[in-house]
Sequence to fold (107 residues):
Amino acid sequence: MLRQPFGLLLLCLLALAGCGKSEPPPPGTSVEIINPDPVVAAFSSVPDAKPTVEDLTISIRSSMYPKALADLDALAKTPNITDQQTKAIAELTAQIRKRMDSRAPQQ
Fold:
């Protein structure tokens, strides 16, 4: 008879323990999302750039930022590059470098 109330009490305690508020991240650790969509859109009309753009998005999703920067360098060398494409590359490069800098070990 004592076993049933004890089990109910234990279940309530476990439920309450799981309802704690999570602490906010420490200041200065905000995470910005790296968004390759502007580059993808800017190069959608360039068939020769499609494999590089696909590699770029995979590299970003896999957090392989040095590879993503190399892909952006390759896209920057595309013949007849437009101002919109150049701007999209520059913005994405800045996002990636910012993420890499935030992950660098602090000295």
